[in-house]
Design a protein that fits this description.
217 residues; endopeptidase fold (from Nostoc punctiforme); seven-stranded mixed beta sheet; two-stranded parallel ribbon; Peptidase_C92; Permuted papain-like amidase enzyme, YaeF/YiiX, C92 family; Papain-like_cys_pep_sf
Amino acid sequence: MNSCTKNISLPIDPNSEKSSNSSISIKNLYNGDLIFVGAQIEELSGAINRVTQISEKRNYDHIGLIEITNDSIFVLHAAPFGGSQREEINHFYHSQTEKNNKIVIYRLKAEFQHTIPDAIITAKSMLGKSYNWEYILNDETLYCSDFIERSFRKDSIFELIPMNFTNPKTGKIDDFWIEFYRKKNLNVPQDEPGTNPNQLAESEKLQEIGSLLILKK
């Protein structure tokens, strides 16, 4: 057990204000926080962000849910490697930042904090499911934002939206996704229901807390 996950102190006020440009430490995390991973420019990460980015300020391609226990912090998330899993936060953080990805924490506003215990229970009930490489909703495989939306579905925190695979620069289906689905012998699921990290980050039920900084021991 990494020593920095012990004797965790939690912020008293889940609605405490933070600058979106500020850095926070592991001690500032709150049970039920959402952890977002910044998108890369190329390959799958870039392709996801290219067709889902809503604002210049936010460009994410992954999301997880923070669970805090007596002596540890975990990230509950659905990832390409390992599927739906419960990952110790230091391992999660350093595996992401080795790729120079920015890690940003968001928090449910005070009036929605009561939904967190059930969301964590639901998230843990989905652990072990395989990753959904087709990004077409089903009950057996999950992708990251699908995992989070389902975790909070009981309380309607997030919503399904029509998926978009259109490149905003061309107004046409992005070439990456045409080839991606061609290899799977599938049509691009344009306008099928789904979610994405950038959409969830724009929710008015969330507030951005700051960038997470965890130093290596």
